[in-house]
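Hey, sorry to bother you again with one of my protein questions. I've been puzzling over a protein and I'd love to understand its fold better. Take your time with it, there's no hurry, and the full record follows here:
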Amino acid sequence: MEGTAVNTLLACMENYNEAVKKMTAKLRPGDGLLGFGRDPKRDPCHMEFYEAVGEAVGRMVQEGLNPAEAEDTVRFLVTLAQEERYFDLTQPMREAVQGHARTLVPLLEPETARELADAIDAQLVIPMHCRGEGYGLAEIDTVEPFLALSKNVEFADGPSIELPDFGAPRTVVLKLG
């Protein structure tokens, strides 16, 4: 991979911002109002950005990010929506690409995963990217190091739960098989 993972994603964002700039320069007054003309919210550049970020993250995982690079990449994706230097029109997709950070969770150290969950004020955390008895990759840790860093840990009776009324943040471990 050329450059750092974050630089790759930053280039995707800069290309997206440039595409939005070109698209908005071509708009005529009234475009998009009441469904007439070219609606800037429906321009293909939005989905192209989302897909480009997803493909870039997929390549990063295949090429093997180390935990520090994975952490930097997750932080970039999670904070991109708060950046104010981009067109407002890009805000929904900057929020949407946060979902691509899930792909990187198995590469994070347990301390980092816990810190990031706390930083985004996650009300419900369900550890899923871990090794268990009889399943999972040897390179991925068990759930115990993550649970040791967590408060309000609950163990479900089965592989699913009813969504709780959210009060205090909690970590719920699902019972598989």
In short: The longest strand covers residues 170-173.
